[in-house]
Amino acid sequence: MKACSPAMHRLLAILLILVSSLSPVLARQPAANPPEPSQPAPSQPAPSQPAPSQPEPSQPAPSQPAPSQPATAPSTPPPSTAQPSTAPAAAPAVTGPQGAADGGSARDRTDEAQADTAQQLDAARKRLDALAAQVDNANAAETARSTQANNANAADNRLAEIKAQVDDLSQQVAAQMDAARTRIEQIKGRLTEIGDPPAAGAEAEASVVTEERSRLISERNALNAVTGTAETLVADANALSTTITEKRRVLFSNTLLRHTDINVDMLVDAGQALVVEARAFSRNIGSWLTFVFTFKRVPLMSALFLSLCSALVLLAGTHRLFAPLLRRSVRDLHPTYIARLSRAFGSTLVPTIAAATFATSAFFFLQSFNVLRQDIAPVVTTFLALCVALQFVWTISTAVLAPGQAVWRLVRVSDRGARLLVALIMAMAFANLFDYLLETISVTLGSPLVLTVAKSLIASIIIGLLLMAIALIRPVIPQGEPLDGQGRPWPRAISILLLLAGLGLITAALSGYVGLARFIATQIVVTGAIFVTMYIGILTGKALAKQNALAKTVGGRYLSHRYRLEPMALDQIGLAVGLGIYLLVIMFFVPLLLLQWGFKIADIEAWAYRIFTEIRIGTMTISLVGIFAGILLFILGFVITRWLQRWIDGSVLARSRVDLGVRNSVKTGIGYLGVGIAGLIGISAAGLDLSSLALVAGALSLGVGFGLQNIVSNFVSGLILLVERPFKVGDWVISGTTEGFVKRISVRATEIETFQRQTIMVPNSLFINASVGNWTHRNKLGRVDITFTAHSSNDPRKVVESLRAAVTGLPNILRNPEPIIVFRGFTAAELEFEVRVFLADILQGVSVRTDVRMAVFERFQADGITLGGPAAPEVPIKISPEDAEVLSALFQGTRSSEGSRASTQLPGDAGGYVEQPGAEPPDSRSNDIPDSSESGRNDALRGEELRADVKPPVSAPPSQVSPAPVQKSDVDPETGPGAPTTGARKRRPGRTR
């Protein structure tokens, strides 16, 4: 193998050269004959032409696939229409022979695309003509089979299918037309760039430019012709769709308002036809059963077994998941309203879905195993559907009326009234649905129309009589009375409405309008059941969406106990459940109502497609599917962005020993970039053209100029802070009056936490436009300054040495640079020093200050350095004898003038007072306020007490103090100056205020 390896290499090289040389030929080969894939398209509608010649009601079915086959022809080539949008624009960039060759290839591709588009439009025109012919054929077939039963329904179904195909064709042609218009706009822009041809006598332009201008003009003309053809085709398709809608409306009106003579001969003919139909049906059923039990016994049993298994699995799963919604506990004597609503809704919906699953799976397996015969399949299908409908009516009536359990009843009716209402409702449903089963049998066997009219006449009369019977019962129970008591009649409006409905049905049937009577009877039974279910579902969703409603239910208690959910989480879940129930009711029951009122599945599918993919508001088209996809993509991008942020921050940056601020900036930048990209992807997926947002951008610019400039300024400032990084998360910053640690830097503001644990949001523009102090910008190295004072009697050098010795060796203080002791100044009373120490971590400044003060205090005590001066000396006061006599005279005069008020002064404690009758309150007397000398002494005393190193002065003995001259109004003979008068507060000696 090793010896052969060079040969193998050469062989592979030769093969690669051959493939590379043949690839251009293979790439151009399909383009040499592009019409071949689409050539059979025009000939495919031909099989639909023989349809008018077959009058049998069962034959138009084979003609249905024919119009759908050409649908693939216009749907596959549209990508080729986008090719000429880019190729011609690149042609002028190359000159010379190579440019001519590229221009020729671009011209060839353009011609091929135009030819392909023309062929697609031609195929669409032929398909539209075929659909119009099918509309005429369906109308003619309906007229020819006017004597057959159920022909109107079949014709309406066929018209609905044709209308869906016409609408689809119109959308495809409109898409091609939009693409052509887009290319025309591109050509106009390119022609504007090239300019007009030079005038006569001017300098000639390059041949490449002339060729490109002529090629673009010819392409524009061809596209204009294509656009005109497409517009005509879209207009014809819309006209045909409108015609089909009008035909369906007329057909529906004729079916309901068709008159039939009701007489004895008609009833006799109906009786004879019934005998013939019964014999034919029994013969067909007998032969089919014999065939099945003889040759198809195992497939039949297998189909039934698989259907039962699927239904049982669904029932078991739903009962296990929704057991609280399906069971009615006998021990629960007083269930809440929400519990009754939820059980009624669940016990109706879950069994109905299980029954529908069984019926669908049974029909599917019977058809798959070839058990059903062509004449038996419609009867079996109708029978299974009627069983599901009966089961639905039974569950909804028993859920609302609860004839066996009055406590679970949703309406206040008596027990007897509940039983009667359930029986009458089930009788109406059975009569109506059995009439549908008999009609299907008549259609299958080809029975005369008179038999179907007679059956519907009898069913309408029975339903009318049952409605009148419901109006005559007495089921209503007033509030406060027991439910097992005697009921009262319906309110007058309800009873009159029921009587009029019953009489109207009977009158319409007997008057010959059997179709109208049958339609009204069906709507009363089926539509009424659907409306009741929708109402119960809406009430259930509304009740669950209320605050604290889910926590009171069995499911809420289970969720709270199982997953430890808080009340707020339960409220949010309840709101989501309520919205989900609303959505379920709308999506499940609204189509059922539309089907009951004559709309077809094709109509509902077309409406749903337009609602979810094409909502036009003016010239703008909105797609709900695109919006949902955009939202999902944005959420996915947001989740991926958050995961990428955590991964880069925790796995990449954390291992690289990157600073915390850098990590925060990188993480924030990735978050903004990811959210922006996710938003752009979501907007593009939603189908919104970013170029169409120019008006919104202009409005935002105008808003920025008027009122949003601060927001934009803060946003730009935030980006600058993230890039420039003057501070980072965790830094100690000071801005104005705000000081604290940076906790988060967002787009609009920065979050700062103060030392008191207060969070302050500071706009980013303040950090850009004002000065900002950062204690921990590049590192945490810092200096702490601490001031000390000593008494002036101390030696300054000794104080400096003591301070240096005190701070040397303390923890958290750097030795290099070493602490600095500064003698800042002195006065006659004290010396002022400042200790400057450097810290490795400025965040430890508070603890370092405390340690330094404690060390200095202990060192001062050890070295005998006094912080305050000695006690003030006693100063004797001397006065002359003349001044003493004057003071004595004044003192005696004061005592005599105050004698008249001495009776109001009672002896007591020197520091208290006793209030006498008629005396003024202490706070209202002006002499209760001490004089300025006393206030000065008190202030001085308080100021001295604030100094730990200064002792209060010792007052001189009374023998050394000479009396001083004072005013009379300020002297009291007993207590001295400042003493209160009668009725005022007596102060204790030596106490200050």
Please give a structural write-up.
By secondary structure, the protein is α+β, with helices and mostly antiparallel strands. It contains 30 helices and 12 strands. The strands form 4 sheets. The protein has a 5-stranded antiparallel β-sheet with strand order 6-5-4-3-7. Strands 8-10-9 form a 3-stranded antiparallel β-sheet, with helices on one face. Strand 9 (820-826) and strand 10 form a beta hairpin. Helix 8 (151-194) runs antiparallel to helix 9 and helix 16 (449-472) packs antiparallel against helix 17 (492-510). The radius of gyration is 51 Å and the shape is elongated. It starts with a helix and ends in a 16-residue tail after the last strand.
